[in-house]
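Example record

Each entry pairs one chain with its bound ligand, pyridoxal-5'-phosphate.
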Amino acid sequence: MSSVHELNFLKEKIQELKDQGVYRKLPVLEGPNEAEVILNGKKVINLSSNNYLGFANHPRLKKAAIAAVEKYGAGAGAVRTIIGNMDIHEELEEILAKFKREEAAMVFQSGFNCNAGTIQAITGKGDLIVSDELNHASIIDGTRLSRADKAIFKHSDMDHLEKVLKENRDKYENILIITDGVFSMDGDIAKLPEIVELAEKYEAMTYVDDAHGSGVLGESGRGTVDHFNLHGRVDFSIGTLSKAIGVVGGYVAGSNTMQEWLNHRGRPILFSTSLPPAAVGAIIEAIKMLMESTEYTDRLWDNAKYFKQKLGKLGFDTGNSQTPITPVIIGDEAKTMEFSRKLFENGVFVSGIVFPTVPKGTGRVRCMVTAGHTKEQLDRAVDIFEKVGKEMNILK
Ligand SMILES: *Cc1c(COP(=O)(O)O)cnc(C)c1O
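Structure tokens for the complex follow.
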């Protein structure tokens, strides 16, 4: 047998990961994603999911998923441009457009491929993409797939953004400014009103990836654009259906023109099978629930404030988050990972996030509070934070 099949070049790289102490195995979850879970065989309070509203295992979503399977089957059977566009896919886009208060929506199979497919479809040679330095990996990949040039502005630095726009306006045909709506590592919100002002001043288009804003910010989770009441002034408003909505998928909300174009040139629409009926049925139900009441988003914010306040009172540094994302900043990388490990041993799962995902010396555990947590669970989690924090001399 040829030695080429041994993949020695990968074995060497894997060994390097082990030497650097960054090799890991995937944690295994037994059962649904809920406030309390069995992870790697241990019962823990889950402070690490993006299941903001507790929809991932909600009875109404499950029922809708099963009903969709009974009516439409397990799979869509083709890409949308051939025969994989079922009436429920159309229904989903109609309800999403209505929910987002935009003309139209175009649904993709994930938030990741929504960014990868959309950015390359709407930009090309002779254009410039202007991107916040902390934007998500899928935006970076979408930008790489585009033939446009790229410029990065310092995180939420409006003076720097204006400088980039001023210097480049005359050199390019179209300019597209891209930002996350909510930044996932710190929980801060993009300065969207200022970005839109600058975009209009320099005749640039705007693109907001609201993966962590969808289902969280705005009226009943309509997102960052709704939060700032900027309807009609953001050209491409991206949401995920996999985080707060609890299922899987992504979409762009915006104009009919956007929708018409992506129908023809969004490569994941043309070359990848559409979302399965179960997912579509469950998502439609989730959007209906949000349109019926603010109960879920209210509970999410209430829990987040409660938890943040308690941690702050104990003396933890919870950073500058403006959303339910609650970082607890430890600083040192090794200490952060040890804190996370000890929290797990004591019954709380919260993942450690260190360099290179965040700057050196700003290691943190990132707590994701959800509407699904009870106050009792949050209290227990806070007690465990206090115990471990004292043991490790993080708290005095
Ligand atoms: C999670 C995330 C995505 C990817 O969404 P998926 O639906 O999980 O593929 C895209 N952008 C941002 C900012 C995200 O946080």
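The chain has a mean pLDDT of 96.
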